[in-house]
Write a structure and sequence with these properties.
By secondary structure, the chain is mostly helical. The chain is built from five helices and no strands. It has a single domain, classed as Up-down Bundle (Four Helix Bundle (Hemerythrin (Met), subunit A)).
């Protein structure tokens, strides 16, 4: 695998984490606690793998900039800004929420999960969107030799 393949790997990991989060929510709503726990741990593992891959990629390949202008650039920067701020919170929130679940502190776990879940899903979805915009939907992909 080449370093240039990692953005695609990262998008796949984000998409998989999102899918597992949604499955975990569906499982707990059906009372399937074991399946819920497995899905949420797997989502966390995908997010950890994503973070390691993301950091490795940017340490070795630098960054790619959005080349759009006008409204498209403003929309992208708003998306990127909200994604980045919330992505910085997710590891702490996810660890706390998982810990409360493992400690069987259900009331606190549910309270934290009400905030953690939508933020984590948003970060996962916007991570995939940012990948698509940078590597497939703009001139940035062509300029990086990936289009």
């Amino acid at each position: 695998m080449e370093v240039s393949d990692l953005p695609t790997v990262n998008a796949i990991l984000n998409g998989l984490a999102c899918s597992l989060l949604i499955a975990g929510l569906a499982f707990i709503r059906k009372g399937r606690e074991g399946a819920h726990k497995s899905a949420m741990v797997a989502a966390f593992a995908c997010s950890v793998a994503f973070l390691a891959s993301y950091l490795y990629y940017h340490a070795h390949a630098g960054r790619i900039s959005f080349r759009g202008e006008g409204f498209a650039r403003s929309a992208y920067l708003i998306l990127l800004g909200s994604h980045t701020i919330l992505a910085a919170l997710v590891p702490f929130m996810a660890i706390r929420t998982l810990w409360l679940g493992f400690a069987d502190r259900r009331s606190s776990h549910r309270r934290w999960a009400r905030w953690t879940f939508p933020i984590w899903v948003y970060v996962s979805i916007t991570g995939v969107l940012i990948y698509l915009v940078l590597y497939h939907f703009t001139d940035s992909a062509r300029l990086a030799g990936r289009g």
